[in-house]
UniProtKB/TrEMBL annotation:
Keywords: Cell membrane, Cytoplasm, Membrane
Localization terms from the record: Cell membrane; Cytoplasm, Cytosol
Main location: membrane
Gene source species: Paramormyrops kingsleyae
Gene3D superfamilies: Potassium Channel Kv1.1, Chain A (3.30.710.10)
Name of the molecule in the record: BTB/POZ domain-containing protein KCTD7
Length: 312
C-alpha cells in the first residue's frame, strides 16, 4: 500500500505495528495529507504517552484533527451556568496546567451563548471566587471554602487547592477524619443509624424515631473506683470470663473503643454533625449506663445515649 502523508516512514511503521491491517486505513486527500481511521476506543492516550510533541502535532494534522489556533480577544466575556463574568484572557491563563488555561489556549473550540459570551456549563455561584484567586491570590471567606474547594478541583487549579487545604475548615476536617479513622465501622454505623430510624418512623407513621446508641472510649467496663481491682485480676481471668467482658450492650448501634485524646463528647459531635450534613436533624442525651452484670461485682459502665432523629 502506498501512502502520501506528512508522517515519516518510522511513524507509519509504528502505526502498522500497533493496529491490525483491517483495523485502519489511509484515505488520500489531495497529494500531501491523509486520514488514519483507527478504532475510536484507542483514542490519542497512547500517542500522548509514547510520541514526542512534534510527532503528536504531525499526528493531529495527519488524522484530520483541527490544529488551527483559535484567537481570543484580550477581554473575555463569560457565561458560567447563566451567570455573567468578564475578565482578561491572561487571568484565565495564569496557571497553565489548569482547565481554564487549556480551554482558552486556542487549541479548543468553546461554545458561545446567544450574546456571544463563551459558555461554561457549570454553576457560576462560586466562579467569582475562582477569578479573584486567579487575579490576585485572594481566598474565599470561611463559609465558602468547602464549595470553592470543590470548584477548584473541577477546574484543576492546584495552587488554589493547596492554599485552601491549609485553611479552616478543611484543615480541621483532616484532623477530624484522622480521629474517625481510628473507629472501626464508623461510616457503616452511621448508615445503620439512618436506616433504623427510617424504618421505625415508617412503621409507626411518626415524625421522629428514637435509638439507643452506646458510645465508649475504653474497653474496660468498670468505674475508676473499681479499676485498681480490675487491673489486679485482669490477667487471672479464664477464657470464658474474658468473653463475658467482651459483651455487646443491648443497644441499636455501638461506637468504640478508640485510643486518642478526643473523648466521647467529641465523637457525639461528629455523629450529629455528619447526620446534619445529610439534612438529618438529630438530638442526643445520655440516659445512663449499660449496667449489665458481667462477673462477680463487675457491671458494664459504658454510657448509653438516646438519639432522636426528626424527619420533618
Amino acid at each position: 500500500m502506498n501512502y502520501s502523508c506528512p508522517l515519516p516512514p518510522a511513524c507509519l511503521n509504528l502505526i502498522g505495528s500497533l493496529f491490525h491491517q483491517d483495523e485502519w486505513r489511509c484515505v488520500l486527500i489531495g497529494s500531501h495529507h491523509a486520514h488514519v481511521k483507527a478504532w475510536p476506543s484507542l483514542g490519542l492516550t497512547f500517542f500522548n504517552r509514547v510520541w514526542g510533541r512534534q510527532q503528536r502535532k504531525a499526528w493531529l494534522r495527519f488524522s484530520g484533527q483541527p490544529f488551527d489556533i483559535v484567537h481570543f480577544p484580550e477581554v473575555i466575556p463569560l457565561n458560567v451556568g447563566g451567570t455573567y463574568f468578564t475578565t482578561r484572557l491572561s487571568t484565565l491563563r495564569r496557571y497553565e496546567d489548569t482547565m481554564l488555561a487549556a480551554m482558552f489556549s486556542g487549541r479548543h473550540h468553546i461554545p458561545r451563548d446567544a450574546e456571544g459570551r463563551f459558555f461554561i456549563d457549570r454553576d457560576g455561584a462560586y466562579f467569582g471566587d475562582i477569578l479573584n484567586f486567579l487575579r490576585e491570590g485572594e481566598l474565599p471567606q470561611r463559609d465558602r471554602v468547602r464549595a470553592v474547594h470543590k470548584e477548584a478541583q473541577y477546574y484543576a487549579i492546584g495552587p488554589l487547592l493547596d492554599s485552601l487545604e491549609d485553611t479552616q475548615p478543611l484543615t480541621g476536617e483532616k484532623v477530624r477524619q484522622a480521629f474517625l479513622d481510628l473507629l472501626p465501622y464508623y461510616k457503616e454505623n452511621l448508615e445503620q443509624i439512618v436506616e433504623i430510624a427510617k424504618v421505625r418512623a415508617m412503621q409507626k407513621k411518626a415524625r421522629f424515631a428514637k435509638l439507643k446508641i452506646c458510645v465508649y472510649k475504653e474497653e474496660m467496663p468498670v468505674t475508676p473506683y473499681e479499676r485498681p481491682l480490675f487491673n489486679s485480676l485482669r490477667f487471672e481471668r479464664s477464657e470464658s470470663e474474658a468473653k463475658i467482658f467482651e459483651h455487646h450492650c443491648e443497644v441499636d448501634v455501638s461506637f468504640g473503643p478508640w485510643e486518642a485524646v478526643a473523648d466521647v463528647y467529641d465523637l457525639l459531635h461528629c455523629i450529629v454533625s455528619d447526620l446534619a450534613e445529610r439534612g438529618i436533624t438529630a438530638d442526643q442525651q445520655c440516659i445512663g449506663v449499660c449496667d449489665k452484670h458481667l462477673i462477680n461485682h463487675y457491671y458494664c459502665k459504658r454510657p448509653i445515649y438516646e438519639f432522636k432523629i426528626t424527619w420533618w
